[in-house]
Amino acid sequence: MVDRRARLAALCGIACIVAACTDTEAPSEPAPAPTHGAAGIGDAYYPEAGNGGYDVDRYEIDVRYDPGEHELTGDTTVVARASQDLSQFHLDLRGFAITSVEVDDEPAEFTREGAAELVVTPANPVREGTEFRTRVRYEGTPVVANRGQLGGNGWYRTPSGGAYVFGEPESASFWYPANEHPRDKAAFSLTATVPEGWTAVSVGRTGKATTKDGWTTTTWTEDTPVASYLTLFAVDKFDVETATLADGTPVRNVFSPGADTSRAAAEHTPRIVEFLESHFGDYPASTVGGVYLDTNPGFALETQGTPTYPLDADADLLVHELAHQWYGNSVSVHSWADICLNECFAGYATWLWAEETRDADLDARYRTQVANMSDGLWSLPLYDMGAGNEFGAVYQKGPVAVHALRLRIGDEAFAEVLRRWPTEHAHGNARWEDFEEFVEQVSGEDLDEFFQAWFRGTERPAEEHLHPKPR
Ligand code: TRP
Ligand code: ZN
Question: Which of 224, 261, 348, 452 could join 399 via S-S bond, C-beta 3.0 to 4.6 A?
Fold first, then answer.
């Protein structure tokens, strides 16, 4: 932010000097020339993720997908507000041939750069503060999933001939042009058309399906801001079961043809939500349920309101993904270095669930895990772990560190932290540093050394941090 301001100020300075020297007719305060929006939003780990110069309000996506042909036709409008005068800006999109780009209904020039950058030059510069609509029409064969540190990002095929696209840190750009970074959350609406007999599934509330000329169309709307990696597109011969929670939240469980082994776990959904609410406050998403796949991409993903599960999902996995609805989805990372805000807490939710449902002795579990932690794991920090290492330690060391925090500040302050953090940052973004500060404020303690030892450090914490004395 500071960098960009400084750069803009410098550019403005040059523009003003040039105008003053060369054009005696110049108005006394010439407007600065519009400039290019940055190719990335400013995430140190993923310099090209997201884009600068605007903030998306809403995606209006229209896709037609034929699983038989594995061909997609897209027509997406990105409604955004400019945060600078823009002569050019980027969107993120992977694969496809682009048929046309329009900005505010005027044809715009465009080029592709690298794997994901769509560079748009509008016919007229977009003025700072104005809302503008970028419509992109595209078609072609989607990009298949690569292998990331966890599940891959991109498109997968299912045994029954269906397909789905999900992933973290990116997945939207595999099926619609986006500002692909959790820092720019936006409302989401989708009109999806698939051949009759297939069912398309996404996130948010869904409208009634209509069928015409052998194609079935459904709409999906999520007005709660959603990070783009938390949206989903899945097509299969799904079995869809719907219900409602006591508070009226729609439940939608979507089962792939071979996903019967996950049905028992899905039945725990209302109870798990209620349990998590008892720790984290009101459920923050507008829908609940799950998409139960009949493949194993390696991991589940906490897609908003409707997590996506691999084969053989169990209740613990539901607890983890549903906990993300608070820790990760409502409160989203500011940068990917902050990932422990998501995973350390979703991981710890399963400890709380074990405490509640199996009477697990968490102190004993903590001692065992501390005793068995490998030097390799101790060496991986939970904060600012470096690009590509985001998921290296958060699952194993993360919940142990969170329990250490509980021991350090006591049950009461810990419970207050767990509940107030998602409430105070609801539907926003936060940094790991914000969390450290917040915990110090709630507990009234100086925790610099504790956080250094457990979350930032690269070795086994000293005894005083491993076994903090109860206050
Ligand atoms: N956030 C996911 C979870 O904890 C894990 C995950 C990371 C993932 N990267 C992914 C899942 C890529 C699928 C694809 O549940
Ligand atoms: Zn997770």
Answer: 348
pLDDT in tens, 242-266: 999 999 999 999 999 999 999 999 9
Atom of ligand 1 minimally distant from the CA of 169 = 9
- Mean pLDDT across the chain: 93
CA of 150 to the centre of ligand 1 (A): 6
N residues, the chain: 471
Fold of the 54-237 domain: Immunoglobulin-like (2.60.40)
Same fold across 248-325 and 332-466: no
pTM for this structure? 0.92
Domain segments of the chain: what residues?
54-237, 248-325, 332-466
Ligand 1: which residues within 6 Å by Cβ?
148, 150-151, 153, 166-168, 297, 299-302, 321, 343, 391
In the 3-class helix/strand/coil scheme, how is the chain assigned residue by residue?
Answer: CHHHHHHHHHHHHHHHHHHHHHCCCCCCCCCCCCEECCCCCCCCCCCCCCCCCEEEEEEEEEEEEECCCCEEEEEEEEEEEECCCEEEEEEECCCCEEEEEEECCEECEEEEECCCEEEEECCCCECCCCEEEEEEEEEECCCECCCCCCCCCEEEECCCCCEEEECCCCCHHHCCCECCCCCCCEEEEEEEEEECCCEEECCCEECCCEEECCEEEEEEEEEEEECHHHCCEEEECCEEEEEECCCCCEEEEEECCCCHHHHHHHCCHHHHHHHHHHHHCCCCCCCEEEEECCCCCCCCECCCCCCEECCCCCHHHHHHHHHCCCECCCEEECCHHHCHHHHHHHHHHHHHHHHHHHCCCHHHHHHHHHHHCCHHHHCCCCCCCCCCCCCCCCCCHHHHHHHHHHHHHHHHHHHHHHHHHHHHCCCEEECHHHHHHHHHHHHCCCCHHHHHHHHHCCCCCCHHHHCCCCC
Structure token pair of residue 360: 């697990």
In this predicted structure, the answer to whether residue 16 has a pLDDT above a threshold of 70 is no
- Other beta carbons within 10 Å of 462: 11
User: Is the domain 332-466 a CATH 3.40.50.620 member?
Assistant: no
Q: Whose CA is nearest to atom 9 of ligand 1?
A: 168
- Which CATH code for domain 248-325? 3.30.2010.30
Q: What is the pLDDT of residues 335-378, one digit of tens each?
A: 999 999 999 999 999 999 999 999 999 999 999 999 999 999 99
Residue to mutate, 391, 394, 395, ligand 1, most ligand atoms under 8 Å from C-beta: 391
